[in-house]
Amino acid sequence: MRCPKSLPVVSVAVASASLMTGCFASGAPGASGGPASGDKRIRVVMMQPPRSGLSPLSDDAFKLSRWSTAETLVTLDANGDPRPALAEKWERSGDRSWTFTVRDGVNFHDGTELTAADVVRSLTEASRAAPKPRILDGVELSVTADGDTVTVTTATEDPLLPQRLSSPQLAVLAAKAYRGRTVDPIGAGTGAFVLKGVHGTSAATLDRNENYWGGTPKAAGIDVRFVPDGTARAAALRSGEADIVESVPVSQASLLDEDQITEVPMPRTNTLYLNTARGTFKDPSLRAAARAAIDAEPLVDGVYEGRADVAEGLLGPALPWAKERAGRTRDVKGGNPRGKTVTIGTFTDRAELPEVAAALQQQLRNAGFTVKLEIREYANIESDALAGKFDAFVLSRATVLDSGDPAAYMYSDFASEGSFNLSQLSDESVDKALEKATTTTSGEARRQAILAAETAVLNTDAAIPMLHERVVQGDATDVVGSAKDPRERLLVTVDTYVK
């Protein structure tokens, strides 16, 4: 392992070790001198703490998926095509209906048997949630059971329904999870690991599911700690306090041994969302002026140390077919930004974003804008961002997180009724393009419709895509089989263990 390069790094490592002390006890399984290979616990350090008590109806669902504790009817392969999971097979049973056969021999972690009625309950609860899981934005569905099959019927034709049902936010949980006002996933999943406890926003504990339908997990369990500070996460791996570390900041990657890090091109775009409903950027000409002022290359070379790609659009190199894009087809003459004040918001959870915001501040100042920054932890800034309280917001956004298809992300972020519409955009041409993209049958025609919708969004300057990220995951050298998943759905699987 490399030695720290400077005294400040040593100081950070010491502080981080202090931070992690007590989180992963040295005598715990998985530590030096622990159980034999394949029977140790895996110590995982993750970036964002739970925001909704690990409810599967929130973004916390992706943690449940990455720990292999909650599962869905279908999963996605590398190409984004649906594959069997809790459903053994499915078929289109009507213009608006799909019928899924529920897998036999699956038990929930509380010992109850998975049935079609359980699937109906989970999907119905998700469809009635407020707010809905974003994968169901613009989708109305009803679910019925008949024997070991479940039929899902949508209000309008939805060719993407099987892919939608792969979203971790549509996980199937036992009846016990739905008692009360919130959905409680503890001991209610079907996956390789049983969620035993959640300790606020600091930690979670999972044990091996000895009766997992997909085979016996190779690890004894998972001990999770949530550490928003990226430097502390990297230091935990360097000091041997963690086995797997999520989202190592690029600034820390060079301080780790090459065999400890994996760089994966991500369907994730770092975008500056501009508020089109109020404030300075309500004026299209000033949005155009901001776009003209922003240069992404210094961000890639400086902030990301070359571990990213300059964006040509909303969709990046993780989707090879996106190279066929037509690009912007309408341009607006840039207005005069002199005397115009804007506030840019972003969050600290992703270590690069405050640096990106600072660089944008200087670039926009050079163009004549007066720029203020507001930076907090994500949990403390999301509601204000969604309410449109900033003139602009810097966000690292996964573009195919939910369905393996970017149409859902684009609808969520840019449709008038989208649940994650940071730009407060309401544009008829965008809505029409998104409607076509979401209703076109999978295949080449759908891809072309998605690219047309991307062009419609870019024409509004509601969002300025800057760069496409690559995830840097840290693994100790004795970790075997951790998932390197561009969609950020998998991390510890049935085949992951510590030697």
From TrEMBL:
Species whose genome carries this gene: Streptomyces kurssanovii
Entry similarity comment: Belongs to the bacterial solute-binding protein 5 family.
Domain Solute-binding protein family: 82-419
Keyword field contains Manganese: no
Gene3D superfamilies reported for this sequence: Dipeptide-binding Protein, Domain 3, Periplasmic binding protein-like II
Domain of life: Bacteria
Presence of the UniProt keyword Cell wall biogenesis/degradation in the record: no
Residues of the signal peptide: 1-25
Pfam families: SBP_bac_5 (PF00496)
Protein name (record): ABC transporter substrate-binding protein
Subcellular location: Cell membrane
SUPFAM superfamilies according to UniProt: Periplasmic binding protein-like II (SSF53850)
